[in-house]
Amino acid sequence: MIAYIKGKLTTIKDNAVIVDVHGIGYELICPNPYVFEPEMNQQVQIHTHHHVREDAQILFGFRNTDEKYLFTKLISVSGIGPKGALAILAGVNIQGFIAAVENEDEKFLTTFPGVGKKTARQIILDLKGKLVHDFAIENTEEQTSGEAAGTSGREIVSEALDALKSLGFTTSELKKITPQLKSDKTLTNTDEVIRKAFSLLAK
C-alpha cells in the first residue's frame, strides 16, 4: 500500500491534486483540494489511502494521518463509500464530527450530502466510543469547530466556499449565496457556514 506521496504540487482541481514525483504525476482525490493552495508549486507530503476495486485503483489524499484514519473508519460504516466519506471530511473538522457521533447528534450528521437518518444512525452505532481515544477529544459535550481563535468571518466563509466547491457546487451557485453567508454574523465557524449554505442551496 502507498502510505504517502512526496513531491511537487503542480495542479489543484475541484476534487483532486496532482503531485509530480520524479516526472510522474500522481492524482490524489481529496476532501478539499483547495487547502493545499498555499503550497502550490512547492514540495509537499500528502498522506494517502490506496483504494483498490475490481475496475480501478484510486489514491485518496489527506492533509494528515488523523484525516486519513477517519476516512478509513467512515468507509467501514455500512452505507458509506469513499465519495460519502470525502463529503463528510470536506464539510467538518475531526473534533466536530466525533463530538456529533458521541452526542448521537443525528440532526448534525444528516446535514452532509448523502447522509440520511438511517445512515446517520449507522454512523453512530458503528463509531461511537471508537474514535474519542484515537483522537484524544477532551470535550465531546460541544461540537468544537477547530477554527483558530481570531479567525475572521471572511476567512471562515472563504474556507467553507472552497469545501463546497470540492463537493461539486458551481461558482455561479455559490456566488448567489455568498452575500447572505457573509452578512450572517451568527455563523462562527466553517461547519456552521457550510450547513447554512446547504439550506440556502436547497431552496
UniProtKB/TrEMBL annotation:
GO terms for cellular component: cytoplasm; Holliday junction helicase complex; Holliday junction resolvase complex. It is found in: Cytoplasm. Residues 72-91, 107-126 form the Helix-hairpin-helix DNA-binding motif class domain. Pfam families: HHH_5 (PF14520), RuvA_C (PF07499), RuvA_N (PF01330). GO terms for molecular function: ATP binding; four-way junction DNA binding; four-way junction helicase activity. Residues 152-203 are annotated as: Domain III. Keywords: ATP-binding, Cytoplasm, DNA damage, DNA recombination, DNA repair, DNA-binding, Helicase, Hydrolase, Nucleotide-binding. InterPro entries: DNA_helicase_Holl-junc_RuvA_I (IPR013849), Hlx-hairpin-Hlx_DNA-bd_motif (IPR003583), NA-bd_OB-fold (IPR012340), RuvA (IPR000085), RuvA_2-like (IPR010994), RuvA_C (IPR011114), RuvA_C_sf (IPR036267). It comes from the Bacteria. One of its GO terms (biological process) is DNA recombination. The RuvA-RuvB-RuvC complex processes Holliday junction (HJ) DNA during genetic recombination and DNA repair, while the RuvA-RuvB complex plays an important role in the rescue of blocked DNA replication forks via replication fork reversal (RFR). RuvA specifically binds to HJ cruciform DNA, conferring on it an open structure. The RuvB hexamer acts as an ATP-dependent pump, pulling dsDNA into and through the RuvAB complex. HJ branch migration allows RuvC to scan DNA until it finds its consensus sequence, where it cleaves and resolves the cruciform DNA. Belongs to the RuvA family. Homotetramer. Forms an RuvA(8)-RuvB(12)-Holliday junction (HJ) complex. HJ DNA is sandwiched between 2 RuvA tetramers; dsDNA enters through RuvA and exits via RuvB. An RuvB hexamer assembles on each DNA strand where it exits the tetramer. Each RuvB hexamer is contacted by two RuvA subunits (via domain III) on 2 adjacent RuvB subunits; this complex drives branch migration. In the full resolvosome a probable DNA-RuvA(4)-RuvB(12)-RuvC(2) complex forms which resolves the HJ. NCBIfam families: ruvA. Has three domains with a flexible linker between the domains II and III and assumes an 'L' shape. Domain III is highly mobile and contacts RuvB. This is Holliday junction branch migration complex subunit RuvA. The lineage of its organism: Bacteria, Bacillati, Bacillota, Bacilli, Bacillales. The gene is ruvA.
